[in-house]
Amino acid sequence: MRWSSETRTPVLSTQYSVPGFQWKVGYWILLATVTLLSAAPAADEKHISVYSPVAVYTLPVQERAGREYVGLLELLEPLGRVSTETDGRHWRLRYNAVDAEFVAGRTRARIRGRDFDFVAPFLIENSRGLVPLSSLNGFLPRFLGAPVNFHESSRRLFVGDIGIHIRFQLDAGSPPRLALNFSAPVNPTISTEPGKLRMIFTRDPVVSPGSQSISFDNKIITQAGYSENNGAAEWDVAANQPLMASFSNDRKTIIVSVFPQAMAANGTPAASGGVGPAPQNPTQAPPLAAPAANIGSAHNNPHRVLAVVDPAHGGDERGAALTEQLTEKNVTLGFARLLRHELETRGFAVALLRDGDIGSTLDQRAAAANVARAGIYISLHAVSQGSGARVYTALLPVEGTSKGVFLAWNTAQAPSLPVSRIVAAAIVAEMQKREFPVRASSASLRPLNNVFMPAVAVELAPGADGIADLTSANYQQRAASAIADAVVSVRDRLGVQP
C-alpha cells in the first residue's frame, strides 16, 4: 500500500456549500463528479460483463487478428484463487485446485489433464494469457465446476443460475402506470428521450423474458423492447407522452408513469399528445433512478444509507507491487466489488469510485464522496507484508485559525472522526469473531482527512496461505462480510454530520 500525505492548494477555486459546511475547493469537484459518473467502461470500448454469485464485474476486450480476446487471469481472479507462471511460450495457470497449461500460438490446451481445443490460438502478451471469447462456453465450466452461459453477441457471461427475470403489470388507469417487477433488486442507469424511457443494466444480470418486444393495449404506454449489447442489457419503454421512473419494493420494482407536466389540470393526459424532449435543466428533471455511482435517489429512503467504496489506486497509479505480476490496484478493485455486493445485500446503496482501471487524484476521490453526500466512506488497500487486516482512521493535522466560513480541507473529517472510530472498532470486532487477524490504528492519511462523513481505510494483508490469499475470492469474501456486518451494526450512527 502507498499512502500519501500530500497537501495541495488548488489553482482555480470556487465556493462549494452543503448544509452546515462551506469549502474553498478546486476545480477537481467537477472532475471528481465526472469520475464518479464514469466508473463504467466507455461506451465505445469493447468489454465483457461477468455475472456470478460472488462477483459482478466488467473486463476490457482485445481484438487480435479479427477475433475478440479477454485476459484469462483477469477473468478468473474475482472468482477464486489464481496463480500463473510463464516459461517462454508456455503459460501455466492454477485456479483453486485446477491446473491448466497453454502454449502461445496454439489452439490446444490442457485443462484438468485433458485436451481442449480453442477456436483461435491462445496468445501471450506481456505475460498475460489471452483466450478467445468464442471458446468461453466450452472451457470455463472445466475451471468453475458450474454451468456457464455466454451471450457472445452481447458479451454477457453468466456463471450458474444467476439471471434476473422480469414480468410486466400495466395499470391502464388515467394516467397509466407500468410496473416492471424483477426477481431481484436492480440498479440501472435510466434516461429519457422523446418517445422513450431507457433503462440500461450493466451490473444486473437481467435476462430476456423470451420475447424481445412486448406490446401493451394502451394509447399512451405502447411497447417495451429488450436488447443486449457490449456487456449490458437494455429495456426501452415507448410512449406517446414524456415518462418518468421511480423505484419501489426495495428496488425490485420500477414504476414507469407519465411525467406530471404532461398531464392536464384535471389529471388526464394532455390533449396535445405530442412527445416533448427530456427536460434539460437537471433541477427540473423527472425523478429518474440514478446510476450505480450517482445515488441521489438512495436518499429518498431514509433507511437506505449510501456507502462510497474506494478501491485505492487505478490507472497509472499501480499501488504496491505485491508480487512481480500482482499489483495493489487489481486486488483492491476485486475486493471492492465483493464489498459492494455484501453491503447491497444488507440494504445499503453503494457507489464504487472506480469500477475499472481508472485513475483519479486523492482530491477527486474525497470530493466525489462529499458531492455524493455519502453516509460512509470506505477506502480499500492491500499489502504483501503481515497478515489479516489493518483498519485505519484519520489522524488529523493541526491547522491554523479558521478562515471564516471556510473549513480547512485537511481537517474536513474532524466532525465525523468520533463516529469513524466507532465504525473502525466495529470492523475490528467483526473480524475477530471470524478469527481474522486485525488491528486498528490512526494515521495522517489522505483522502480520509478530506471527507466529512464517517471514514475508514481497510488494508488487506495475506492470510494463512500467504500472498495467494490476496487474490482469493473466499478470503476477500470473509473480510468483506465482516466489514459489511460491522457497518450494519452502526447504521444508525451514519450519515452526513452537522
Can you give a write-up of this model?
With 498 residues, the chain is of the alpha+beta class. The chain folds into three domains: 13-39 and 296-493, 3-Layer(aba) Sandwich (Aminopeptidase); 47-159, 2-Layer Sandwich (Copper Amine Oxidase, Chain A, domain 1); 166-284, Immunoglobulin-like. 17% of the residues lie in helices and 33% in strands. It has seven helices and 30 strands. It has helices at residues 28-37, 72-76, 136-144, 328-345, 362-371, 417-433, 473-489, and strands at residues 13-18, 21-26, 47-51, 56-60, 62-64, 67-71, 82-87, 90-95, 98-103, 108-111, 114-117, 123-125, 128-132, 148-151, 156-159, 166-171, 177-182, 189-193, 196-201, 213-215, 221-229, 232-239, 243-248, 253-258, 306-311, 349-352, 376-382, 389-394, 438-443, 455-460. It has a six-stranded mixed beta sheet, with helices on one face. A hairpin with a 4-residue loop joins strand 9 and strand 10. Helix 1 packs across helix 5 (362-371) and helix 4 crosses helix 7. The chain is flat, with a radius of gyration of 24 Å. 43% of the residues are buried. Mean pLDDT is 79; it is low at 2-43, 261-302 and 400-405.
